[in-house]
């Protein structure tokens, strides 16, 4: 990985993500392993202390996939919430896992299954639960 900026993760998100990682099946193992690396290197802090410019779970994020020159707006959700979130992207999807903990302006080189990679840039956080005082969402 040539570029992985520092990340910050909400303590409750980290606990929930670790449970997902521990329960991952073979088809999700690649993403689970990548996500676990992120949890291990991330700074884990209380939800109340999350800065407003950090992607946390349930944040609506505007980001650019620089590899494909494609800008998207997605809400980063747990897999079970995909069906009820119109613009949802699962944290267990290859691109979704790469978003957690990044700040506005950060770029990350993120591995994809099969050996490829995506270069992602966070352009804006349109909605963040912590910013709205929703610390346990």
TrEMBL record:
<keyword id="KW-0808">Transferase</keyword>
<dbReference type="InterPro" id="IPR036953">
    <property type="entry name" value="GreA/GreB_C_sf"/>
</dbReference>
<keyword id="KW-0418">Kinase</keyword>
<feature type="domain" description="Transcription elongation factor GreA/GreB C-terminal">
    <location>
        <begin position="51"/>
        <end position="125"/>
    </location>
</feature>
<dbReference type="InterPro" id="IPR023459">
    <property type="entry name" value="Tscrpt_elong_fac_GreA/B_fam"/>
</dbReference>
<dbReference type="Pfam" id="PF14760">
    <property type="entry name" value="Rnk_N"/>
</dbReference>
<dbReference type="InterPro" id="IPR029462">
    <property type="entry name" value="Rnk_N"/>
</dbReference>
<dbReference type="Pfam" id="PF01272">
    <property type="entry name" value="GreA_GreB"/>
</dbReference>
<feature type="domain" description="Regulator of nucleoside diphosphate kinase N-terminal">
    <location>
        <begin position="5"/>
        <end position="44"/>
    </location>
</feature>
<dbReference type="InterPro" id="IPR001437">
    <property type="entry name" value="Tscrpt_elong_fac_GreA/B_C"/>
</dbReference>
<protein>
    <submittedName>
        <fullName>Nucleoside diphosphate kinase regulator</fullName>
    </submittedName>
</protein>
<dbReference type="GO" id="GO:0016301">
    <property type="term" value="F:kinase activity"/>
</dbReference>
């Amino acid at each position: 990985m040539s570029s992985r900026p520092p990340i910050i993760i909400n303590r409750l998100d980290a606990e929930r993500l670790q449970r997902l990682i521990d329960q991952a099946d073979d088809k999700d193992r690649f993403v689970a392993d990548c996500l676990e690396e992120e949890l291990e290197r991330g700074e884990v802090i209380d939800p109340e202390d999350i800065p407003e410019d950090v992607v946390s779970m349930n944040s609506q994020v505007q980001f650019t996939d620089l590899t494909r020159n494609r800008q998207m707006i997605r809400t980063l959700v747990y897999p079970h919430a995909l069906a009820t979130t119109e613009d949802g992207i699962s944290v267990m999807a290859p691109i979704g896992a790469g978003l957690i903990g990044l700040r506005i302006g950060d770029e990350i080189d993120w591995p994809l299954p099969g050996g490829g990679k995506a270069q992602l840039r966070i352009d804006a956080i349109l909605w963040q639960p912590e910013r709205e005082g929703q610390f346990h969402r």
